[in-house]
Each structure stands twice: as C-alpha cells, then as structure tokens.
Amino acid sequence: MAYVDWEFAKTTGRALVPAGPVVSPAEARAEVEAIRAAARGARQPVAETARMQTPPEAPEALVVDRATWIGVNVDSMAALLEPAVEHIVGSRGVTPGPAAQALGGKVTGAEAGAMLGFMATKVLGQYDIAPQGTPALLLVAPNIMAVARDLGVDPADFRRWVCMHEETHRVQFTATPWLRDHLVDQARTLAVDLAPDQERLQEIASRVTERLPDLFAEGSTGITELFVTPEQREQLARLTAVMSLLEGHADVVMDDVGPAHIPSVEDIRRKFTQRRKGAGAPDRLLRRLLGLEAKMRQYRDGAEFVRGVQAEVGVDGFNAVWTSPDTLPQPREIADPKAWVRRVHA
C-alpha cells in the first residue's frame, strides 16, 4: 500500500484549482492551436540562438489545462519522492497497519494535491523530465491566456515569448542526454537525505512556531529551511545552482530571440517583471512558504551568470557548461561567472 495516496493528490488538486478564463469551445480550440503553432515556431529560433544540437525529431508540445498539469506533476512527484517515502517508513522500524497507512496516505496526498492546486494557476509551461516516464514539453493554455489578458499584452507575442522559454528547456535536455538522469539522481538523493527521522521530526515540529516569521520573510527559501543540516544545505545549493542555470539560460534565450520574432518583447518583459513583484500579500506569503520566491531569484541570478559568461567567452564558450556534471556551475560561481570561466576554460 502506498504511504502517499497519489491518486487522492490528483483528486484534491483538481477539486481545488479553478478552471481558468471562461471562453467558448471555439475560443478554447483556437487558443490551443495558436499555442501549438507558437511552440512549433519556437524551435528554429531557439536552436539558432542557443547553438545546441538537438535530435531532428521531437514530439509536439502538449497543450494542457490545469487539471492535466496537476495529473502529470503528481506522477512525476511520485516517481521522484517514493525512495524518500520508503526511507522514512523504513527508518521508523515499524510498519503501520492498513488502516493507518490508508489514513496517512490520504492526508499526505491531500497536502500534495493542495500545493499543486495552488501552483497549477501560476505555471505557464514546463519541460517535464518524467523520472519514470517520457519527458514532454507542457504548455498550460488557461494560464497563458489569463496572464496575457492580465498584462494587457499582445496575445500572439506572449504565446511566442512563453514558448521560446519552454522550448529552451526542451533543447537543454535533449541536446544534453546525461542532464536528465543527473538531475533526477541529485534530486532523489537530496530527497532521501532530507527525509527526517522521528527525532528530527519532533525537533522540526518544536521549531515551526518560533521560525514561522522567518519562513514568511522576504528572501526565505521556504519551509525546506526547517529540514536542512549544513551538509544538506550544501547539497541543496548545488542543485539550486543547476536550476538557476537552466532557468536563467531559458530567460536569456527567450529575450535574445525576442527582438527578431516578437515585436513587443520589451513591453512583455517589463510588464511580466512588474507582475512578479506586484503579487498580493497572501499570494506573496504562500510563495515564500513554498520557496517559490527563491525560484524567482533563480531566473535573475541564472540570467546574470549566463550573460556574464557569454560576455567573457561567447555563446559557444558558454555551451561548455553542458559538457558533463563537472562543468555545471558551482554555487559560488552563479554569482561569479568569471570564476566558472577560469575553472572551465583555464
């Protein structure tokens, strides 16, 4: 029996998430086709700008609604976290009975579903690396439509802009076959290491109240901060450095491609950045608790790293970053691109 009821997580997330903008069936079909066309149109410009060789054939992007996004991400989360769940259960030395397992699975499933239900309204797209499945490029149609409306930007340009970013993620993983397994292995190892034993759980529970203001403070890395030891913080920093690279590189490519293919790219970038900063107080607090504000910093820090390296050694020199795990940036190098250049191009 599963210790996390992943199907209940899907049910919970889908029950909590709003459907999105109200549109007619014809408008919905038109939006889906327009997003698919934008995804196809992003391939050549991104390949030319990133200068990364990818397999000639790639599956078409999947244009999904919020409920489907939740289902895909629950499956990926399950594949990624099951080793950690098994570690937690094994460390207790006692196997709960069927009734306790069922109840605990429902509780943890509901928690995961509620978190994904919140996130499903925020994500425009992603490259799902699918730890035990087939990787796929996902584009969330209701969110792309809603954000374009909220920002008051050209819908066609906004679709293209989003697709440039997400297509860059597809290129990163398909041009660098080892990257997916490396990330999955690192994330699973960290998840197992972070899984607290009973004594650690009690310590964390006793600290939640006193640390709650810190978790909601600006710059917080989220609730994960309660779980990490200094050694684990270093592991997390290494993984964060890679994620900063991926997000920053995608942002740089989407903006470099923009002027030739997206007439209003500067207007979109300005308004989108303002939107990130201008979220309401409850939304900002929840983002901080979940560590989503830290993800926003990854975009900025990663983009500064990429541009800093490219200023030193050009795009082709930067692409040495994809050679092996050893050439990925170390945490300190994200803030010091020249240090990465010295180490890799010495």
Automatic annotation (TrEMBL):
Does Protease appear among the keywords?
yes
> What keywords would UniProt list here?
Hydrolase, Metalloprotease, Protease
**MF GO annotations:** metallopeptidase activity
Q: Does the keyword Protease apply?
A: yes
SUPFAM superfamilies from the xrefs? Metalloproteases ('zincins'), catalytic domain
NCBIfam families registered for this protein in UniProt: DUF2342_F420 (TIGR03883), putative hydrolase (TIGR03624)
Q: What is the protein's name according to its record? A: Zinc-dependent metalloprotease
Provide the species name.
Phycicoccus avicenniae
